[in-house]
Design brief:
Helix 1 (6-15) packs across helix 4 (46-61) and helix 6 packs across helix 7. The chain contains seven helices and no strands. The chain is globular, with a radius of gyration of 18 Å. It is mainly alpha-helical. The N and C termini lie far apart (51 Å). The chain has a single domain, classed as 434 Repressor (Amino-terminal Domain) (Orthogonal Bundle).
Length: 103
Amino acid sequence: MLTLRGPGIRSTRQALFLTQAGLGVLVGVHAVTVSKWERGKLQPSPWMGALLSALHFTSLTMSRDVRTQVPALIASHGPIAALGFLLPLPKQREESTTPETES
């Protein structure tokens, strides 16, 4: 898994057109924490690193037009809706179907 360091976190945030406060709202931390991550003064926890890595991948695959809408999406619908929009859904496992037997 990709581990983002300061410059990677900053570039991801900027690619999503977010301020430090906006990224903080999105992932549930204070803007000062985002600032410390970006400056290398603090490292994200492993689970936060996984979330930031997923956001980084998303920022690379989304069009610029879509990415510019992220701040408005957070403001209008909240961070949970924005994360649902940004993060890919896990692929559903196909249910194994067994033919029913007649008695």
